[in-house]
Design a protein that fits this description.
The chain is α+β, with helices and mostly antiparallel strands. Helix content is 34%, strand content 25%. The chain is built from five helices and ten strands. The strands form two sheets. Strands 1-2-3-5-4 form a five-stranded mixed beta sheet. Strands 6, 7, 8, 9 and 10 form a five-stranded antiparallel beta sheet that branches. A hairpin with a 2-residue loop joins strand 6 and strand 7. The chain starts with 31 loop residues before the first strand and ends with a helix. The structure holds cytidine-5'-diphosphate. The site of cytidine-5'-diphosphate has 11 residues, from helix 2 and helix 3. The site of cytidine-5'-diphosphate (CDP) has 11 residues, from helix 2 and helix 3.
Length: 280
């Protein structure tokens, strides 16, 4: 018996009933769940489950730039780190960041940077660490969606949200939100992000073959899908604020009376005097 796990690709990606292998219609998204504020140690964070993708984003900053020569006196800088855990894919991934991860880190940064008011933070850096726990096609899109939520959670001022999704072509049919199998075995993959404050494309990549008509139709389907995903992002953000509000409602500040303060000052003075005596 062979111990090797074979990375087999299915021959047909669309069944007789016109449905995809996971039962979806051609223009149907996978289930998406997002949560904001999930990592207490980070300045801002978010989590997304998008089909088989599971991704955390943690934001640190604005904080001092290291090395110092990277700092810009007129604005803050953004650093993004897209990382796949070794166990996120079927074959163990090497822990060191490869070329693909560096490239995806860069395109995430390029998509997000223009919507942030980084000019408010000269000499500072905002860092976004994105960890893929499980990958199943369209991770770059999931990462953009979750990274912008983590940045909003960190309170980094922004012009608006960014949302991303990939369209594709399998068995000659146009689809939306490609799964891992569809990504690997399909005829085309078209990840696209939109920045909502100006309705401009923030990311557009293309791999495969489509004619112009198919491309146009895919863009229409992408926009329709992006609007649905944006609503989920907004709901996740609102929920975070409702949670914080509820938490604050139950928060009772400790009352310190004026008498207590005077007593405290007296005892501090006393301590200082005693300390002073010892050093003389
Ligand atoms: O994830 P995304 O579609 O943005 O990027 P991709 O480079 O087109 O990768 C497609 C899929 O291939 C990923 O989502 C993973 O499921 C899979 N993959 C993998 O199995 N092993 C890798 N080292 C990289 C990607």
């Amino acid at each position: 018996m062979s111990l090797l796990i074979k990375d087999e690709s299915p021959e047909k990606l669309i069944g007789e009933d016109g449905k995809r292998l996971d039962g979806r219609d051609l223009n149907e998204l996978r289930p998406i769940m997002m949560e904001v504020g999930v990592i207490p140690n980070a300045d801002g964070s978010a989590y997304i489950e998008w089909g088989g993708n599971k991704v955390y984003a943690a934001v640190y900053g604005p904080r001092e730039v290291h090395p110092r020569h990277d700092a810009r006196p007129d604005r803050g800088i953004l650093r993004t780190f897209y990382r796949m855990t070794t166990f996120s894919v079927s074959e163990r991934k090497r822990p060191a960041p490869g070329r693909r991860e560096k490239e995806i880190s860069m395109i995430i940064k390029m998509a997000i940077e223009p919507v942030l008011f980084l000019e408010l933070y000269p000499d500072s850096v905002v860092e976004v660490f994105i960890e893929i726990i499980s990958a199943d096609g369209g991770t770059r899109c999931a990462c953009i969606a979750v990274a912008i939520l983590a940045l909003a959670d960190a309170g980094i001022p922004m012009k608006g949200l960014i949302t991303a999704v990939a369209a594709g072509k399998v068995d000659g049919k146009l689809i939306i939100d490609c799964s891992g199998d569809e990504d690997k075995s399909g005829e085309a993959d078209l990840p696209c992000a939109i920045s909502w404050y100006n309705n401009q494309i923030a990311l557009l990549q293309f791999d495969g073959i489509m004619n112009l008509e198919e491309f146009d139709k895919s863009i229409d389907q992408i926009i329709e899908a992006l609007e649905k995903i944006r609503k989920l992002q907004e709901e996740a953000l609102k929920k975070r604020y409702i949670d914080v509000r509820d938490h604050l409602k139950n928060y009772k500040p400790k009352v310190v009376t004026t008498n207590n303060i005077e007593e405290k000052i007296d005892s501090n003075n006393q301590k200082n005097q005693n300390g002073g005596d010892q050093t003389e």
